[in-house]
Design brief:
single chain, about 550 residues, Chitobiase, domain 2, 2 domains, elongated, binds ligand TNX
Length: about 550
Amino acid sequence: MHKINVISLVLIVVFAVSMWSCADTSSKLTENGIIPKPLAVTDAKGTFTIDKETKIVISGNPAEISPIISVFQALLRPATGYELQVAADMSANSILFELVDGSADSAGEYDISVAENGIKVAASSNEGLFYAVQTLRQLLPASIEGSQVATVALEIPAGTIKDKPEYAYRGFMLDVARHFFSVEDVKHVIDLLAMYKINFLHLHLSDDQGWRIEIKSWPLLTAVGGKTEVGGGEGGFYTQEQYNELVAYARDRYITVVPEIDMPGHTNAALAAYGDLNPGIIVPTEGAIASEGIELGVKGVPTPLYSGIEVGFSTLDTDNDVTYQFVDDVIRELAAMTPGPYIHIGGDESHVTELEDYVPFVEKAQAIVTKYGKKSIGWDEIAHAKLEPGTVAQYWAKAENAVMAINHGNQVLVSPATKTYLDMQYDSTTHLGLHWAAYIELDDAYNWDPTALDPSIKREDILGVESPLWSETITNKEEIEYMVFPRFAAIAEVAWTRQELRSWESFVTRVKAHMERWEVMGLNYYQSPTLADETLQP
Ligand code: TNX
């Protein structure tokens, strides 16, 4: 009896000490769980607690700052029930949001300083203030992500955070062509991207299996080309109204949409809609693999719809004026729905377009994009063409193509398939995804440096980093979540945080804190064995 009591006493003491040391750990700002990791963090004494009496104070043009205040209020509302009020002056319990003057290259920068009597947030742009809000969010307990009111203290340890993105373009690509995803699903993705300070959403809007954006001057693109998807499901498309809604939803979260029309290959859905675009080459029949069921396309005749996952079998007729009228109309309508600077013209895997046809096609498509006031992005193969100033080559497969673009004086967006492709399986047991490029575990997605991919690709040549999710095997929101998390957290940090500040050990601790958030958010994330607690291993 006595012995048992002593043991319990010892256990209680051990437990209390470990709880105390936990509490102590979580009370330091430098030991935060922020992803992507900020530029610099310091500690100070004390903590600040947000409660229902906390006031928000604005410094700067209220009309400019109020959207950010709404984001902050909305963030706190579901899990706290608080309706934080705006006050004119600072008090002993306030959060100041201040817009300050800044230079052109300070986009996205922000400072936070937390003291016992309040928080000050300063940035030279709304975007910076928005990122500061995302950082504050991550400093609050995971329960803040819940949709039910929970009583937890909203304590933030005192100290300062200075932050600034490394790359100007931090992107995610969603393939809505192989499988179609609803407006609601895309909004959900946008919400998740915003949390990780992503500022570009590239939508892969057309491919062999589907055309997903209404083009009023070519209505069959969606009426016919939008009718199916991989596996033969019903597919779908966005009306221009719905698309504009997505663009606005993203813009409210400081995310710019980059629409992609993949050309001249990956165009079977367009060829199925309009036979005039079809040069008459070999196309696989519905659901066929390359070696069987091959059918000869007939010039000028629509191809059958396609729901398999082969690539590289289709091409627009590059030697036909109708094709350029088509490209002009599509880009014109798309540019009118695109407030951002870029239109993506695809250009990958045009295996059945002769190089002598491919090069002038890309140059013409690029000129059309320029005519409508936008800059082109294309997959790295476009470097075979003469690129205009400002055109960006997206390096996914061949460093030599990226280097060719750089030698033309153009920048590259890095998306190496072996590191950033979120449709790659985690390992051979992953029930979703492909593995033609690699198996990509969480540490593979984290442990690489965009400036070390090739000796000829230097920091100044890199516009940014983008992580694509191709959807041949991905059919719904839960599957998107599974492939994206936790790897996307790694890529977001590669894009935001300078190389010398990143470390896998630090990332592991922080991503574990995010797993708690994902639990509360109900995300279907992958439990990476790279995060398994070593002390629990045999
Ligand atoms: C290659 S990446 C493709 C896509 C596929 C992807 C599957 C690129 C530019 N082309 O068409 O969906 O592989 O991983």
